[in-house]
C-alpha cells in the first residue's frame, strides 16, 4: 500500500510528462537525428551523412551575415518592446479618463493574427497604392509612387526598420500586460514609505518599482527573446527575406533550405535551438533573475 501511495502523484504528473515528451523532447531528438542524415526533397532518408549537412550550412556565403542579423533582430525588437512596454504599463497603471478603453485598444495588435498584421503592413507599404506612401507623397518625402524610393521593402536599409517596427507592434501588448500584472503586486505602503522619506518620482521608480518589477520583467523579456528569435510570419509575409538574404534571419534561412535540402535545414534548426539556449542563458545571467531584491 505504501508503494501504491508513493506512485499516486504519477497519476497527476504522468500525463504532463508524457505530453512534454511527445511535444517537446521527441521533436528535438528527431531534429538532431535528421541533421546527420541525407534526406532527399521528398523526405526519404538515404542514410547517415555525418557532419556533411553542417559543413554545407556553415559554408553558405550568407550564413555569417544571417546569424549576426538574427542576433541584432532579437536585441532590437526585445529592447524596444521592453522600453515601450515599461512606459505604457506605468501609464496604464495610473487612473485617467478613458483608461479602460485605452487598455482594450492595446489588446488589438495582440488579438489579431501576426500573419494578418504583417500582410496589412505590407499593403500599407505597397509602392503603388500603399497608404503610407500616399502620405509620404503628400508630405513631399517622395516625388512619385512606384519608384525605388517608394519601395521601402525592396531595400534592406529601409525594410529592416519596418520589420522591427511591426515585430515591436505585435509584441508590446503582451509585454505591457505582463508588466501591469507585476505592478499590481507592488504594495502601496512601499510607495508611501518612499514618499515620506522624500524620494523623488524618478528615484522611487528606479529604486523601488524596477527592482520589484524584475520577476515580471524577466519572464516577459525571456518569452519575447524566444518568440522573436523564432519569428517567421512577419519577415516571410513582408519580404520573404529578400532582396537576396538581406532581411533573412536564421529561421527564414531554415525554411528556405527545407525546399532544397532537408538535412541542411535540420542542421540549421539545431543551430537555432543552440542559439536560443545561449541567448536565454546570457539574458538570465545579465538580468540576475535569481537574485533577491534587498
Helix and strand succession?
HHEEHHHHHHHHHHH
Low-confidence stretches: none
In round numbers, the mean pLDDT is 86
Gyration radius, to the nearest Å? 24 Å
Task: Choose one word for the global shape.
Answer: flat
Distance between the ends: 47 Å
Fraction of residues in helix: over 70%
Largest sheet: 2 strands, antiparallel
Strand content: under 5%
> How many beta strands in the DSSP annotation?
2
CATH fold naming of the largest domain: MetI-like fold
Subcellular location: Cell membrane
Family: Belongs to the binding-protein-dependent transport system permease family.
Keywords: Cell membrane, Membrane, Transmembrane, Transmembrane helix, Transport
Protein name: Sugar ABC transporter permease
Structural features, described:
The chain is mainly alpha-helical. The protein folds into 2 domains: 1-49, no CATH class; 61-287, MetI-like fold (Orthogonal Bundle). Helix content is 71%, strand content 2%. The chain has helices spanning 2-6, 8-34, 52-58, 63-92, 99-111, 114-124, 131-138, 156-184, 188-196, 201-229, 233-238, 250-258, 262-287, and strands at residues 37-39, 45-48. Strands 1-2 form a two-stranded antiparallel sheet. α2 (8-34) crosses α13. The longest helix has 30 residues, at 63-92. The two termini are 47 Å apart. The mean pLDDT is 86.
Describe the protein's topology.
Blueprint: H1 2-6, H2 8-34, E1 37-39, E2 45-48, H3 52-58, H4 63-92, H5 99-111, H6 114-124, H7 131-138, H8 156-184, H9 188-196, H10 201-229, H11 233-238, H12 250-258, H13 262-287
Antiparallel strand pairs: 1-2
Helix pairs in contact: 2-13, 3-13, 4-8, 4-10, 5-8, 8-10, 10-13, 12-13
